[in-house]
Amino acid sequence: MNAFEREPDDVLAELAALREADAPTHGGRVLSYVYDSGLAELDELAARAARLVQPVNGLDPTTFTSVAAMEAGVVGFARRVFHGDAAGQGSAEVVGSVTSGGTESCLLAVKTARDAWRSAHPGDVRMPRLVAPTTVHAAFHKAAHYFGLALDLVPVSAETGAPEVPDVVARLDDDVALVVMSAPSYPFATLDPVGEVAAATAEHAIALHVDACIGGFALAFQDGLPQWDFRVPGVTSLSADLHKYGYAPKGVSVLLQRGRDRQRRQYFATTAWPGYPVVNPTMAGSKPAGPLAAAWAIVQVLGEDGFAELTARATTATATLREAIDGIEGLAVVGEPVGPLLAVRADESAPADRRVDPHHWADAARGAGWHLQLQPGMAQADGPALPHTTHLTVTPVTDHVVGELVPALVAAADTVRGTPAVDGGALVAGLTAQLPGGAQALAAASAGLDSDTAARLLAAFGLLGGDGAGGALPDRMAPVLALVEALPGPLTERLLVELLARVVEPRD
Ligand SMILES: *Cc1c(COP(=O)(O)O)cnc(C)c1O
């Protein structure tokens, strides 16, 4: 082959150089997004398994029968650990699909429930409702938006992060297509009251999805929790991500459904075109088999004992971190976190000059090479405002580095103790004063922005270069989150769309 424009080795060297600038995916320094088992041999196994199926098209498990075998293996493992195998035969059988990730699992759970609701309510023109606590993952906002459901959010307690069961039950009516509970929630690691809510949804024959995307494959190996999986009779579907605590590379999750007939509504099928019959349980057509193969291999190699051991490591590290954070003056862990994640807020009971703002804290920790995730505070309709927090996702590898992490967290708190949270309102006022047109321009902007105006606003906020070039994240995220908290939601969303779109635009 003489037509290569560049040497493959040079191209790979360029990619390796680009990767140098990424946040570190291994070693436990990034406490969100990545789930490091700490076992290099698992990563190697995943890579080899993915490589073996690289040319396969996961679209058709009858042509590529390895896909069917691996999917059955992964779904079988998930069904076992989430106690769906004891659910019974026939109409009660728990069946499932492997999807491309948590969002797809959640989207498909909502689509299935909507279609089941429609078929149970022929001629009903109402928009079906999706009822969930405000802590439900944003994937359900997306699902409601994509599939035409009204999202009915139930407030949670600012102390516990959990909804009150009567507040959920009060919303159940015959227009509710689905209730979602998290096990646990991403923002605060709350295990929602699955059992109590399921008793009510079952009575009204309303579907109940348990979103165990983040924690499912860890919680399944943790003792002493209230039941939250298919042992609870009213649970109709459950999602859990293998690319989180299943330690697989990104692109693999499972969606389990109670009952074959329910699950068949997840499928899309058509023969109404001149090509091959299209029959898909998931959103994509042609799809990779690599993430599935990696997850399958990991599940085979680890088995339940391996998962239990890795969960124990993450749990130990979480307990150590929790104790350490409880001991830091001015910070407090939110509620009663369940599983290997937690959120941290300012301790309101401490005097103001001893309080630690969790966002300044995260920025200080980042300066020392530890990436924690800032979460905005927000108002809740019919409920208390939720504090702004910093999120930590703890993985087995954290256990190896917790001896370095704890002193870094203590030192970060010492650096920022007493520094008040960034005043988002003042920040917005200051920035708008500099804008041509001032506050009016901002108000007008809220009504609808074109791309160039959005880019100019971002540049004024210091988030985009003047040439419209998006760069790396700023050194300090606290002011950015303060803007997110202070600006009107639709404006922030539009600005973030612009930022993300510009970041990936080609620029030569
Ligand atoms: C991560 C997550 C999701 C969405 O998963 P993706 O894999 O990021 O698409 C859904 N629910 C919860 C609770 C999660 O943590």
Automatic annotation (TrEMBL):
GO biological process: carboxylic acid metabolic process
KW Plastid (keyword) present: no
Record SUPFAM superfamilies: PLP-dependent transferases
Molecular-function GO terms, alphabetical: aromatic-L-amino-acid decarboxylase activity; pyridoxal phosphate binding; transaminase activity
Domain of life: Bacteria
N6-(pyridoxal phosphate)lysine carried by residues: 244
Gene3D superfamilies the record matches: 6.10.140.2150, Aspartate Aminotransferase, domain 1 (3.90.1150.10), Type I PLP-dependent aspartate aminotransferase-like (Major domain) (3.40.640.10)
Cofactors demanded by this protein: pyridoxal 5'-phosphate
Protein keywords: Aminotransferase, Lyase, Pyridoxal phosphate, Transferase
Family affiliation: Belongs to the group II decarboxylase family. Sphingosine-1-phosphate lyase subfamily.
Protein name, as recorded: Aminotransferase class V-fold PLP-dependent enzyme
Protein source organism: Agromyces kandeliae
